[in-house]
Each structure stands twice: as C-alpha cells, then as structure tokens.
Input
Amino acid sequence: MNRVVITGMGIYSVIGKNLDEVRNSLYQGKSGIIFDPIRKKMGFRSALTGMVDRPVLKGVLDRRMRIGMAVQGEYAYIASLEALKVAGIEQSFLDQHEVGILYGNDSSAVPVVESVDILREKKDTMMIGSGYIFQSMNSTVSMNLSVIFRLRGINFTIAGACASGSHAIGMGYLLIKQGLQDIIICGGAQEINPESTASFDALNAFSTHESEPTKASRPFDHDRDGLVPSGGAATVILESYDSAVKRGATILGEVLGYGFSSNGEHISLPNVEGPRRAMQMALKSSGLSAEKMDYINAHATSTQGGDSNEAQAINDIFGKTKPLISSTKSMTGHEMWMGGASEVVYSVLMMQNNFVAPNINFHTPDEFSKKLNIAQVTTPTEINAFLSNSFGFGGTNSALVIRKFSR
Amino acid sequence: MNLLMQNDEIINKINQLLVEEIEIDEEQISQEADLKKDLGIDSLDFVDLFVIIENNFGFKMKAEEMTDVKTLRDFYSYIIKRVNPN
Output
C-alpha cells in the first residue's frame, strides 16, 4: 500500500483568494459573510451569504475554455492553479504523466435556469448556444479542469451533498493508496448565487441574523439560528509518497485515514450514530488513537440539530482526550460541496503555522457543546494530527485524518 | 432585420462579431481564410454563430444552406444573401 501525501493546495474562498490571505483571515478570525440585497428583493427569508468576487479569466483562458465553465469552475481553476504551483507541477509534467482529478460538486443552478429561460423566450433550443450544457452538469468542474490541464488520469465528480469535497479527497486517497494513480487533483467547489440556494432557504435552515452578518454563523453557540450559505473552491493535490520523493516535492501533510458512513434515516436531519461511525472508521484506518488528534475541524454549520448531534458524536469518541475544536464555518459560512476540501486546506494551514483558528461567535455553550474544548479565540498550539468532519443531506458522512509528515 | 444594410456594413459587422464574440484574432481575418482550418471555428463555435447571427441579423442560419460555406468570403456571401435577398 502506498503512503498518500499532500504536495499542493490552493484556495479561493470568501475569507481570501489565496493561501496567504486565507491563513491571515483564519488567524484573525475574519468573517466573509455579507448581506446580499438582491436575495431580499427576490424573496429570500435570509439574504446572508458568503461572498467572493468572480475571477476574471478573459485573457487567461481562451473562449472555448471559458464558456463551458460555471462560476464554481472558475473558482476551482484559480484554486487548482495555486495548488499545482505549490506542488511544483507544471503543464509539461501533466502532459507526460497520468494525473487524475476527483472534484466535489453537487449543483450548477445558474446555467440550468438561464438556458431554460432562453428556451422559454425563444422557443428554439438552438438559441441556447454551446456553453450551457458544459456549465450545467454536476461534473462541470472536473470536465472543464481536465480539459484545461490536459489531464489523462481518473476524471469524475463526486456528488455527496455537503460532504462532496471531503469524499473527493477520501476517494483520491484510496485510489493512490491502492496504487491505481500517482497524483490526483482533489477538491471541492461551490457556486455562490441566489439560484442555487433559494430552495435551501425554503427549508428555514438559514440564519436570519441579518443585522450583523459577520455574527450570524455561530456554530455550537447556544443562540445559533441557522447556517449561512457560502462558496468558492479548494484544491488539494494528493500524491503517492514515492512520486513526491521522485519529484523532490515538499510534503505538506499525510492523509492517514478516511471514514465514511450513511445515516440511513432522515433526508435532512443528521443523527449522532452515523457521524460517530465515520469518525471511528477514519481513526481506525489511520492507525492513530483518539488521543493523537490535536485538533478537530468540525462540520458544525450553525444549525441547532446538526451541531448538537455532532457535539455528541465527538464527545462520545473524544470526551476523554478533549482536543481543540473549531468550526471554520463560523467565518466562512457553509461552503457546502466545497467545505470538505476547503476545511482540509484551512486545517493544514493551521498545522503549518501552529495555531487553531477560532470558532468565532461562540460565546454561550449549550448542553452538548459545553462538553467540548472549543477554541473561542485563536489558539497557538502545535498540531501534529487533525480530524476533519463533513456531513451532508441524505445522511452521507465523511471524516479524514491528516498528520504532519514524518519519515 | 435591416434590408438597407450595405454589403460592406454587413462584412464589417461580421468581422466585429467574429473578433468580439468568437474571439478570432483580427489579423487572421481575410476573405480567403478557411473558417475551420485558418480561423479554428469548430462545430461548437458554429452553434454559437447560429445564436450570434440570429441576434444581430434577425434570421436563423440553416445547416443545409451552409454546406458550401468554406471560407470567410463564402460566409459573407451567405449572410449578405440572407440579409438582402434581392
């Protein structure tokens, strides 16, 4: 079995457009949440959202490469450029080796809406043009990036709701561990627009704390009133240890374990047992005990049910060892399909820079979160190993264990 | 759409659309340029040209009328005939 290491990462997020900016935001506990007046006019219950500028790719990519890419693909392109640069992988290397892509993405609403709007108005499918089909499929990110970077390895999208990005890294880890691929561009992308979140807003799941957007996302806090949707993209380059050594690459961390499970219950309400099994499986496959986890990046989205169930599951496993815990969603909002990948990037940044980012807006614990060691402020500490949780609709759960690399 | 459009107006408009919408390099534009080989217009670009021509000249291009359209000169002639049939 191969050891699986991280040799590159890149990020385009509501708290920064590159690794340096994001590291600073994490350290400072900076929020990326805003009030979007367009959503209010449209009839949203909550107009809160994470927000980041759309990348300008005209002059960077040719027209054919651009017009098939939805906004989350653009985010993912920027994040992947940074990740490949960090990994020291140039186009000439991609042309000569079998490099794959597994990206998490679970929607592409705007191109679907716009193309059908054109059809309804013009009553002729030919007026839709050539770009929308490639933008509108869930696999839009992996299909576009594989063409842009001329990839020749595994190539598909992982759609696992809000655990998509985490499962993408988990599946990449398994493929490299098995020796089926040497390098895989893994990640997660999430579109930011009203079209993709309107039906989610309908579930009364979003925070309505609109008067203070940066205080709306408050995972684990007693007074939390819902999540804040967000987005962007994060890329993690996974590589076999042998390939990394052969290339002389700098190793940023090692993926040691991946755990997954399905709740088999409610379509939207999470439970305790499913996430607990995923965490236990990740720990078991990592070969590390609970006490070796220095930090847990919680899934906690700031919903009442989700956070309390995760707190119980974490307490069941880590109640004695009490590692530092934070939900970076307190700053970023819920990055959904992207979150599982971005939170690995955030946690590796913390591991590299010896701090745990704060769970901002956590002031009053509830009966479950009071049992956890939640970092209310930026906490300088050495992280040798961490666990990252991601859970999604349908009861899909993913947990990853990542450790500082040592020979 | 505009029956009074002069031929050179139509040609200029087509050139402008090719440069701005399809992002053809302006220097490559010549009457003799082969749409596929020289300008790199592929089957997907033709789908977009269909939209662009309808939006700018007000008619739908028909694939069966395009079979002999190889060069930019052919394309100009085709569009001119459709815009000014007489």
About this structure: The domain at 4-403 of chain A is CATH 3.40.47.10 (Peroxisomal Thiolase; Chain A, domain 1).
